[in-house]
Amino acid sequence: NKRPGDELFKNFIGDDRRIFACSGKDFFSFESNGAVAWTVHLNYTCNADIAPVNGGDGYIYVVAENRVLKIHPLKIGTSEEPVEVFFDAGLGEENPGEIVGVSASIYSSVVLVNVKKRGLFAYKLQGTPLWTAGPIISRHGYQQGCKKNTTECYFSSPPVIDHCEASILISNTVGELYSISVRRPYFKWIKDLSSYGVSFVVTPGNNGRSYVTVPDSSLVLALDASTGDTLWERSVGPLSSSDYEPVVDSNGWISFGSLDGSVYSLSPTGSLRKSSNSVSSTSVVQVNPILDCSGYGVYVSRTETEETTIADRRRRVSAFSKPKKAVFTHFVPASGAVLYSEAVPGNELLFEVLSRSDLGQHFAVDERTLLAFFAASMDGKNLISVLVIESILVVVLSAAVRYCCVFWRKKKLQSLGLSKFLDKRASLKSEERALGIMISAAAEDGETTAEELAKERELIRRKLSSRYSLGRDDDGGEASSSIRHRRLYGLRGSKNGESSSSSFAIFHSVGRSSSPSSNSTSPSAY
């Protein structure tokens, strides 16, 4: 039965298209149909505002109270303990620090933990400490970071990793954005963004861009990931929360859902595409979009209400009555193409399945959770289609490559060149057609030249099917040549000196490497 405490916290979709989420002191893995795949008790209460992190190699990192827990799914159901304390912010400290965020990267083999007022901690995936860093360092007597306030300045955002630059992006309480090397606590650059406020969300583009979202003013900035220079600045619609997180696809487009019901997508160069077709004036987008398994598409959830009011476009103020339905859309930001759209109420097949599953029976499900399950279920279907299409393409490409390899090995093609080869082939085709007409005319007139013309046409056809074909070389005269090299051996039996009427013949084919006069009598010759 559902209880008030049975709420699923922030989730993430794994590589196997399962959905992972916490509820109280329990961690759950769900299939895309809502069934519980496995569950594990943590002994600590999960942080509802920090989503679990996929650490690669099957490991999952979860923030619970003032600890980072490492979950080993493969150990669940075995004699080994599946949960270990990876990081304890209160270990050896009188006042345990609050964990602001955690990030992990299998590419850089690092786990990052930001602890409020204490700094950024870097660990190897195995748990070995690498380094720590605060918001202020001194190089050659020159202070870097926290120039406006050194007493109440500390890292205030979750660390995010730009894999292409091997750098960490993190901000402090005075509006400065840092790019820090993954390998050591080296500040690559510091960008002062205090003119936009002190609260913003950083998203790595992994394409030479770093995106900064300022939810309070609905602004998006693109920075050069190497230098921190501002490349462009654009306005989008009002966002639902101060921690709203956009997504960046494999084409480098960054996408936002807005309280005005539209989805704003920006290219790496700053070109804006606003998808608002068929969107009612009472639609809002409240939850973060989700990237699909291909990396090129995005899932978005729109909620249609009876009435919506945006009091101030710049202040994220909204008031709306009871929702009427939710519309889940799968689209490609780079092209604007809508791949799939489903409304609830409407086509409710998936949601009937979810309502009867473990998810629907035991948990209070919100729009964020529904979008995750919709994305996971659609990705499963799309994955099968993609695999089928890829298999067909592999077969077609393999056949094309094989044909090209055979074609370009033709002797005539190598000696004449492609242009002359094709001209000669076209000339032979023309001669063949002309001879066909002449043979028909000669046959009608009863002329004896028809047989000679037919022999000439047959010679041309042999050339077209062998040396001037579009396939492999195949000597058209090989059959007749082999016949000429055959020898007929006749054997007759005799009985009581009388010749027998029974006889049989054996054809012996002389190979090309054999001499015509060779007279082998070995068993392999017959």
Textual characterization of the structure:
Strands 27, 28, 29, 32 and 33 form a 5-stranded antiparallel beta sheet that branches. A 4-stranded antiparallel beta sheet has the order 1-2-3-4, with helices on one face. Strands 5-6-7-8 form a 4-stranded antiparallel beta sheet, with no helix packed on it. With about 525 residues, it is an alpha+beta fold. The termini are far apart. The model is unreliable at about 1-5, about 315-320 and about 475-525 (pLDDT under 50).
Short précis:
With 526 residues, this protein is α+β, with helices and mostly antiparallel strands. It is built from seven helices and 35 strands.
Low-confidence stretches: 1-5, 313-320, 476-526
Helix content: 10-25%
Give the termini distance in whole angstroms.
84 Å
Sheet with most strands: 5 strands, antiparallel
The CATH top-level class label of one domain: Mainly Beta
Alpha-carbon Rg, integer: 37 Å
- Which percent band covers the strand fraction? 35-45%
* Molecular shape: elongated
The counted number of beta strands is 35
For this structure, the CATH topology of one domain is Lipocalin
